[in-house]
Design brief:
The protein is mainly α and 572 residues long. The chain folds into two domains: 331 residues, Up-down Bundle (Na+/H+ antiporter like fold), CATH 1.20.1530.20; 130 residues, Rossmann fold (3-Layer(aba) Sandwich). The protein is built from 26 helices and six strands. The chain starts with a helix and ends in a 5-residue tail after the last helix.
């Protein structure tokens, strides 16, 4: 008991220190967890030991991640992505497995069966790493993000046939095709049944939990849904994560989506961190150093090969070069399900220990490199996008067409929920505006309602110029990401030193930085919501409404310089 408690204390201490350092260096926290696994695992200081309990908890980190990703993808959106899932996904799996299999069979002398096993393992990419980075960077619904998630979903669907295929390869090949056909039919049947029943029951189940008015019951119900659907898919021969993803999609169709996402996030982050620790524990640093030349070649082949496959697939599909590069970088690493497959291949003796160690180490190293590669590709593709005149001309022309008749208008940067509400108020007052956004579906929906929303990144000077920034009366920035908002503010201020810039931020901590960048006023959502709650509390406690509102006015007068004269009481 005390030994287990000491291990937990050691792990938490290392996690706090490593994540703090990673945040200070502006690195992904997953790298901190990976480093902890290497340093404290059996191949490092041997202070943490692998166990089935730890592995089980770590696997649920991926389960909860897939659940939260499912909340972002409704059934309608997934149906619209079917060409990406089965088109891009199948092409990526087939080409990567074929290329890796040939290299394994010819270079390592493992035979065609071992080549297929290694090829399928390497073809998998990391849902845990990529999906979390895309979510953190607000890129899930970008073109590259949708392509990447389509491929990752196909890989999750392919796990079950792969788990059946490898034992069949190790035995005789007589029942191979029958086993694969059975697995495919089983997968389609289980998913169709879950979705059909889920659409009928999910809303009613959450309604019943919500009527009790107990947040604890709603959290427990959500956990029961996640674990229950994961159990059902696992018992059906599919992956745990696939059931969780279906559960997330079903809940995304209900009004409880945002509440559930907030409740489940702490479970996801903690368990996902534990997963990355266990991944780090697998890397034998002594083997890496002793075989550095072989591993370097293997890592280069893995990353470059997977990136090249996706670059070819996306370019054939006429994806712009910028999005193709992002997609290629996002999928150019091994994945957690690949680690399961390569371990199974070793157990079934499809590959020898040398090929296993080389492949496993290369896969793990590629997962370490992935966050840096994705970030670097994003910066590089951004630079290329700024120089892609053909693509730029099309975007700029469309923006200019929608702003040419505007003058004394407002430029709204970001047409989400906040941007949409601002647009409603501007329309009521007959103030002309143009909104810039990068979500194609959101733009299409807004245009269908006759709202002046166009595709464009507001952190591009030429985009703002095309939107008529020189003629505009004000700019509103509604981005949830403070870093992106700061870039827009600096560009606007450099272009129009005199124009008012109103910025929305989620927290008080970014106010000073955004004002230093040039924002006229920064509205923290936390402050506004707290003021409304405080005023309502005073009223319900018996304080006259006029007094409660006066308190709110005083706080706002102190915080918002541009509205100080309005909020301060009139002098008698």
């Amino acid at each position: 008991m005390h030994s287990n408690l000491l291990s937990i204390l050691l792990l938490l201490t290392a996690a706090v220190g490593a994540v703090l350092i990673a945040r200070r260096l502006k690195l992904p926290s997953m790298l901190a967890y990976l480093a902890i696994g290497i340093a404290l695992g059996p191949h490092g200081l041997a202070l943490l030991a692998e166990s089935e309990e730890v592995q089980g908890f770590a696997e649920f980190g991926v389960v909860f991640l897939m659940f939260t990703i499912g909340l972002e993808f409704s059934l309608k959106r997934l149906q619209a992505m079917r060409n990406l899932v089965f088109g891009f996904g199948s092409a990526q799996m087939a080409l990567t497995a074929l290329g890796t299999g040939l290299v394994t069979a010819l270079a390592y002398g493992q035979g065609w069966r071992g080549g297929i096993a290694v090829g399928l393992a390497v073809a998998m990419s990391s849902t845990a790493i990529v999906a979390k980075m895309l979510s953190d960077r607000f890129e899930l619904h970008s073109r590259s993000g949708r392509q990447t998630m389509g491929v990752l979903l196909f890989q999750d669907l392919a796990v079950a046939p792969c788990l059946i295929l490898l034992p069949a390869l190790a035995a005789s090949g007589e029942d191979l095709w029958r086993s694969l056909a059975l697995a495919a039919a089983q997968m389609v049947l289980v998913l169709a049944l879950l979705i059909w029943l889920g659409q009928k029951l999910m809303g009613r189940l959450l309604d019943a939990a919500a009527r009790v008015r107990s947040n604890e019951l709603l959290v427990l119900t959500t956990l029961w849904i996640v674990v229950g659907l994961s159990f059902l898919t696992a018992q059906s021969g599919l992956s745990l994560a696939l059931g969780a993803f279906v559960g997330g999609m079903l809940i995304s169709e209900t009004v409880y989506r945002h509440q559930v996402e907030g409740d489940i996030r702490p479970f996801r982050d903690i368990l996902l961190g534990l997963f990355f620790v266990t991944v780090g524990m697998l890397l034998d640093i002594h083997y890496v150093l002793a075989n550095a030349h072989k591993l370097l070649l293997a890592v280069v082949l893995l990353i470059a090969g997977k990136a090249l496959v996706m670059l070819i697939v996306t370019r054939i599909a006429r994806t712009p070069l910028v999005a193709s590069l992002r997609t290629a970088a996002q999928l150019a690493q091994a994945g957690e399900f690949g680690l399961v497959l390569i371990e199974l291949a070793r157990q079934l003796k499809l590959i020898n220990d040398s090929a296993f160690q080389i492949t496993l180490s290369a896969m793990l190293l590629s997962m370490f490199i992935a966050p840096f590669l994705i970030a670097r590709a994003a910066r590089l593709s951004g630079d290329m996008g700024r120089g892609d005149w053909a693509h730029k001309a099309t975007v700029i022309h469309d923006i200019a067409v929608h702003s040419i008749d505007l003058g004394e208008h407002v430029v709204v940067c970001g047409y989400g929920r906040t941007g949409g509400r601002i647009a409603e108020f501007l329309a009521i007052e007959s103030i002309p505006f143009i909104a810039l956004d990068v979500d194609p579906q959101r733009i299409a929906d807004a245009r269908a309602e006759g709202i002046n929303v166009v595709f464009g990144n507001a952190d591009r000077r030429e985009v703002l110029q095309a939107a008529g920034i020189a003629r505009a009366r004000a700019v509103v920035v509604t981005y949830p990401d403070a870093h992106s908002a700061e870039r827009v503010v600096r560009i606007v201020r450099a272009t129009r030193p005199d124009i008012p810039i109103v910025v929305r931020t989620t927290d008080d901590k970014d106010v000073a930085r955004l004002k230093a960048a040039g924002a006229t006023e920064v509205i923290p959502e936390v402050l506004e919501s707290s003021l409304l709650i405080a005023a309502e509390t005073l009223v319900q406690a018996g304080i006259p409404m006029e007094h409660a509102i006066q308190h709110v006015r005083e706080v706002r007068a102190a915080r918002y310089a541009s509205l100080r004269e309005f909020y301060q009481p009139a002098k008698k």
